[in-house]
């Protein structure tokens, strides 16, 4: 057993990793749907790194996943997608440090907000740059913090919602 938690279930963030590979479930437990999740907001609450996986869960009768260009994303154009996925559970590895654009190509779902833009970083930003909202604790813990290790950068605190 190298690294521990495979599921950060308590906060519903629905992401997991093992051996340093991180997988994010798009939209959390709602999945890839129309009219429920603000995917721009969802993406803003997460950090995406090269090598991470996105998992789109959806009903294939109703939705699909199109990777598109920035222009097509802005216009919600489903013509000439870069990639098209429609198997109901689409897992995509983010292999490059760039902005990826995804839309649903079914009817007007994209215009209704079923669109996702993710900025993929090559490395984690330094901790001081990560906007982690920290609730003010009522009592400061008296124990010293655990030693900082590489794996502690991957704790769900980066993905806290
Ligand atoms: Cu859709």
Automatic annotation (TrEMBL):
**GO cellular component: a single term:** plasma membrane
**Where's the Phytocyanin domain?**
22-122
Q: Does the keyword Ribosomal protein apply?
A: no
Q: Quick check: keyword Glycoprotein in the entry?
A: yes
Name-wise, this protein is: Phytocyanin domain-containing protein
Q: Record's Gene3D superfamilies?
A: Cupredoxins - blue copper proteins
UniProt keyword list = Glycoprotein, Metal-binding
**What superkingdom heads the lineage?**
Eukaryota
What Pfam families does the record point to? Cu_bind_like
């Amino acid at each position: 057993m190298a690294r521990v938690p495979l599921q950060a279930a308590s906060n519903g963030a629905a992401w997991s990793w093992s051996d340093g590979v991180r997988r994010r479930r798009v939209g959390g437990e709602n999945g890839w749907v129309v009219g429920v999740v603000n995917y721009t907001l969802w993406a803003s609450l997460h950090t995406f790194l090269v090598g991470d996986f996105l998992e789109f869960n959806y009903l294939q009768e109703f939705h699909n996943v199109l990777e598109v260009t920035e222009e097509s994303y802005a216009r919600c154009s489903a013509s000439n997608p870069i990639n098209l996925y429609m198997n109901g559970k689409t897992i995509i590895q983010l292999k490059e440090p760039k902005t990826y654009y995804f839309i649903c190509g079914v009817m007007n779902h994209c215009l209704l907000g079923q669109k996702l833009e993710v900025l993929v970083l090559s490395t984690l930003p330094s901790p001081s740059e990560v906007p982690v909202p920290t609730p003010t604790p009522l009592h400061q813990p008296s124990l010293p913090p655990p030693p900082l290790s590489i794996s502690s950068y991957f704790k769900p605190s980066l993905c806290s919602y």
